[in-house]
Amino acid sequence: MSTLFDMTHLSASGVDFIDEPKLFALLKRKPDEGRFRDAVAKAKEKTPLNLDETAELLNADKPEQTEEVFEVARQLKRDVYGNRIVLFAPLYIGNLCMNNCVYCGFRASNKDAVRRTLSKDEITREVQNMLMKGHKRTIIVFGEHAKYPPEMIADTVRHIYSVNWNGHSMRRINVNAAPLDHAGYRTVAEAGIGTYQVFQETYHHETYSQMHPSYTRKGNYLWRLDSPARALESGQEDVGLGVLFGLADWRFETLALVAHSIHLMSHHGVGPHTLSFPRIQTASGVDIEAVNKNDVNDRDFLRLVATLRLAVPYTGLIMTAREPAHIRKEGLGFGVSQIDAGARVEIGGYTEIGDAQTQVISREQFELSDIRPLDDVILQLLEDGFVPSFCTACYRLGRTGEIFMEYAIPGFIQDMCTPNALTTLQEYIVDFASPETRAAGEKTIRRELDNIPAGERKLEILDRLERIRNTKERDLYF
Ligand code: SAM
Ligand code: SF4
Predict the structure, then answer these.
(1) Domain interval for residue 421
(2) In terms of pTM, does the model score above 0.90?
(3) Most-buried pick from 90, 192, 259, 315 (CB within 10 A)?
(4) Which ligand approaches the C-alpha of residue 142 most closely?
């Protein structure tokens, strides 16, 4: 049995590879138009960028250069991901926490936080409430505590997969929880999860120490930095990285995030499946001014998203409901591939609060900006020309990790992802949508079908859409 407190074994690549002096030197370099052009040209070829090239994009401050980065990001988004947007919703399981992260409402010293861990029955009700709305993908979230060992996480995953509502069940469960040791990752991977996310929060060592007291487990920078590598070594094929923006300089953090991706790619043959870039939000008992010392304004935030799109063209980018709807809309245009919708971050929120436009801060980890119900978000996406997708085919067909990259790189993704987006959208339309969303969804499906060349694949898609419309058959993925 693994324990949350064994920190003895790092991965084979377990060194502190974040070379701060080198990253800062790259960011202090005088911008060079020639190098900028070369980096942009390479990105247009969908070739991942190295640190020099990423730094050049981050240093290029002229408005016309920023516009160019935005434009290339838009193009890459269209070429690699098409116009589909994958939807998910977080499910908070428990907020007991032994750490004291200065920015988080769940930190141990916050006496105002209402502490709670959902029972199996409560989880069942939460999941049923999510399924009732149309959700198919979730990410389960935990504080870091001895009561949440890997066995408990794995057990929760198995339980959620078993929950059924009117023939519907969760098809992909990702996890955002504490870094584990090798045995722990194996235990959770065996339960059949999608991605295991661990955000480094900040790659800046001094800031990291200020935010995560050394007497806590999270105070160990290297244990956390090495966590995705341990996961990959333990049979966990998809890992997610992230930065909590606002703690340290955004350019440094963006470059370090790319450094982490490159490290995983070169030592483990596979980059992260997703990157997340939350900005700090107001949270219970948190002195926001004191932690958000490097507040990232909206334009710089969108710049960092676009730069990531150019630097790692095949990595999913997640923008959560921490961001207001208008920023999410812009981010979707040039790079973001996944968003949460109808999200609740209170423990028990789907059952006890539902779609109410209220938030209870003592029950949340932080405040959300976009708490529109799922159907409203889907309608907006459709009206903006996107195809909302609940696709979960890749990980269920073994297209994960290295294999996923092979599929993604030659552009295969559009052949499978668009059809899967359409069938899952069709399911949503038939089973859950409001009349307005249904009409907008049918229109989108017709438009997308017009763009698919005639042939066997198209006939197969048409057949599956018909079966979903006219029968109870579901989950017909490619
Ligand atoms: N406890 C685990 C951990 O810290 O990795 C996993 C879950 S934690 C609840 C998920 C993420 O929430 C953290 O990694 C952090 O980036 C983010 N977070 C914490 N406080 C936040 C705040 N005030 N605003 C926005 N995001 C926050
Ligand atoms: Fe605990 Fe995670 Fe919050 Fe830190 S960020 S206090 S580890 S829940």
Answers:
(1) 402-470
(2) yes
(3) 315
(4) 1
